[in-house]
Amino acid sequence: MAAVFETWRPRVYDIPERVLPKKILQMPTLSETDARKELLVRAMRAQGVATLPDLADYFRQKPAVVKPLVCELVEQGVLREVSVDGWQDKAYVHRNAKLPKQLFATALLSPFDSLVWCRPRNERLFDFHYRIEIYTPKEKRKFG
What predicted TM-score, i.e. pTM, was given to this entire model? Predict the structure, then answer.
């Protein structure tokens, strides 16, 4: 079964052969290990610099499960180990990561954006303690 996403009506399900492009259907199925490694690489590219827990959390994997896979990706040269001032844990970057000379960017994020899912990461990166207080008991809220 494959989900056909339509924004203007309920989700429809169909067989993959009628939903996915032929080139996708012809690709070999990855082993669990290779699939997890691919998720780690995608998480790394999305985050720029990340610790092992950051990488694991991005696709909701367990750090203990992916730790040996991160080590393999480092040994294969896909990821590089780096140190980040102020961080206690090892950090990683993708082998193709480049440090921009300047960065002029502003973005308005939804409170549910994937960038803010991993709160310990946000606190390390931005020194910013973030909580959606609608999920916080009233007596523990700071802003109402």
Answer: 0.78
How many structural domains is the chain composed of? 1
Report which residue type is found at 29.
Answer: T
Write the CATH number for 85. 1.10.10.10
Tens-place pLDDT, residues 91-139? 999 999 988 888 888 888 887 887 788 888 888 888 888 778 888 898 9
Can you list the pairs that 69-77 forms with residues at least 24 positions away whose Cβ atoms lie under 8 Å? 69/33, 69/36, 69/37, 69/40, 70/40, 72/37, 73/37, 73/40, 73/41
18 domain-assigned: no
